[in-house]
C-alpha cells in the first residue's frame, strides 16, 4: 500500500512539474516585458529632461550674449 501511494505522488509530481515550469517561464517573460516597458518609459523621460535642460542652457547662453 505504501509503495502505491509513493508511486502516485511521483506520478503527480512528474505531471505537475512541466506545467509549473511553463508557468514560471511565462511569468518571467511577463516580468521581463514589464521591465523593458518601464525601462523605455524611463529612457524617454530622461531624454526629455536632457532636451529641456539643454534648451534652457541655450536660452540662458543666448540671453547672456
UniProtKB/TrEMBL annotation:
This is Uncharacterized protein. It comes from Medicago truncatula. The lineage of its organism: Eukaryota, Viridiplantae, Streptophyta, Embryophyta, Tracheophyta.
Amino acid at each position: 500500500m505504501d509503495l502505491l501511494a509513493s508511486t502516485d505522488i511521483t506520478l503527480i509530481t512528474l505531471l505537475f512539474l512541466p506545467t509549473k515550469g511553463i508557468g514560471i517561464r511565462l511569468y518571467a517573460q511577463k516580468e521581463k516585458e514589464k521591465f523593458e516597458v518601464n525601462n523605455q518609459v524611463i529612457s524617454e523621460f530622461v531624454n526629455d529632461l536632457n532636451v529641456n535642460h539643454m534648451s534652457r542652457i541655450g536660452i540662458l547662453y543666448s540671453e547672456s550674449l
